[in-house]
Amino acid sequence: MKRTLSIVALAMLVALALVSCAPKGPAEIIIGGVGPVSGEAATFGKSTQEGCELAVEEWNAKGGVLGQQIKLVYEDDKGDAAEGAAVWTKLIQQDKVVAIVGTVMSKVSLAGAPISEQYGVPMISPTSTNPAVTFADGKLREFVFRACFIDPFQGTVGAKFAFDDLGARKAAAIFDVGNDYTKGLSEFFRDTFIALGGEIVAFEAHATGATDFKAQLTKIVQAKPDVVYISDYYNDVALIAKQLRELGFTGPLVGGDGWDSPDLVKLGGEAVENGFFTNHYSKDDTRPEVQDFVKKYTAKFGAAPDALATLAYDAMNIMLDAISRAGSTEGVKIRDALKATDFAAVSGRTMFDEQHNPVKAAAIIEIKGGQQVYRTTVAP
Amino acid sequence: MGSIFNLQQVVNGLQLGSIYALIALGYTMVYGIVRLINFAHGDFFMIGAYAAYGAFFLFNAVLGGSGLPMAGIALVLAMAASGGVALLTNRLAYKPLRYKPKLSSLITAIGVSMLIEYLFSAIPFIGPSFRAFPDILPSRPIQIGPNATISTHALIDIGVAAVLMIGLTVLVRHTALGKAMRAVSQDKDAAKLMGIDVEKVIAWTFLIGGSFAGAAGLLAGMTYPRIFPFMGILPGLKAFIAAVLGGIGNIPGAVLGAYIMGVAETFATAYNSLLGEGIAFAILIVVLLVRPRGILGEKSADKI
Hints:
The structure holds two protein chains of two kinds. Chain A is an alpha/beta fold. In chain A, 44% of the residues lie in helices and 21% in strands.
């Protein structure tokens, strides 16, 4: 009897020892999140955090991933590259995250990406549009992905929309020659529009900070385009639209996500009516993924999600989906699963191209009666 | 496509030139009287735009937003605000330095300019970012040729500039104040000996020049409805060059120079958008090399 007792005790001890030291894997899977919660882009960081939190909460409610609960460690990069690098190192070395979703600004993601690459910890930036984040110096960053489309893509989609939906055959474009974003958009618009069989009748640059665009716009109007592509930011767009209308142009205007500001209508008034721009998503899109997400997000945070929250939510979902398909938390396996992504995200069905940029549709927003109205979705 | 030299571009150039002309007049008047290049003049232009912006929000409820009465009140307030600030600047910053070396006044002028710009950026309800200028008089195009339109804004810009310039000419040629101004510009000391209150004439000059810049501010706000505290720098510089081109100190010269600048800039931009931004400065260099006193300038005066 005494012997049986001691055997039981021994067995218990052994079991205890096994439990305490054996399964090296943690009881939960830790994912890092990064965004500028303070600093000049604080609202971006907050939206990103909320998007990540909502996604993690939903996965955990469904039983987590790989049978384990997910823990989100969210860090503030303050919109600063040096701070970003420190946060990346901390997440990987101290918190032992298996993957990172972040961050918003391209310059900070550019600081984090080499660290992810070095340690083989996969990352998805939700909103960094600079192509160099995933593909720098002619070399692909194997572990770095992004959830947003890059700038030139919008020009391509804008051209398709102008040609197919608006039926335009002759187009003109104007852009800020000192800004790579607007220049890139216009060039891709031009190339795609020509490839579709359209004609570019005027392609005009303007200097940064100009307020009078009439000389260029006169050339544009006299070339009689069906549509004018304006790739500038909203405050230049408003001035250009006003002066175009004053010169007698009544046709449609098309642009990129630089238009997405309430100030566009305040500055441009009636001139920006009959204007269309490409954006990452529209909360008025009727797809069930969108409506479901908007409802859940609004219920949890008390306001409709902006594009940043949406893309962060998508990025986190894509990452967790990849981990679940990889069946492992090993960096290389997650990376391979990410490469094979085909996910029905809120901002559109997402796959990755060979440079780890998402291939997905863009939403077209129309300015109608001073409001942003969802018009359609255009696939590339 | 046709040539870039066509009626529409001339209209565009005249509209731009009208705004330059109103600013250039203040530059040239002040220079003519006190031999000071008032670099804060571009900021008086900015103040005019903000005063008109403020007028809209003050009287919006009473006058229902847009229309001619609102434009009239905005014009009066813009001219009053800019003229007032110009008067104050003269009294506080330039008058104490009147008989000091010229360089002191010039540097003070640059200081005043920056002070006004950063002060406006710091005031919370003005702030450093762009503000949307209200649509006081909605613009619409009027067809004036097979390939050309003129907008109601362009008509207003050119019209207001013309009326104010004619008014100024009448004032300078046919009033006692105008006579005193001409006297002071010719010889300050002799004018004083003739019993002219030189300081009073200088104050009037600042008031009139400033108010013209204020009018230009309103017009620019309506035409390019995006205002911010640094909006006066570039138009100010270009108007200054226009004044030099026409002959600084010469009133018809400033107007002529401004219209040449407006049209030249428009054509240059139509030819190449970046050339347009630089043409003003190219003109300045050429004028200083070839004809330093400007097109209508009298005897060579020392320039800075």
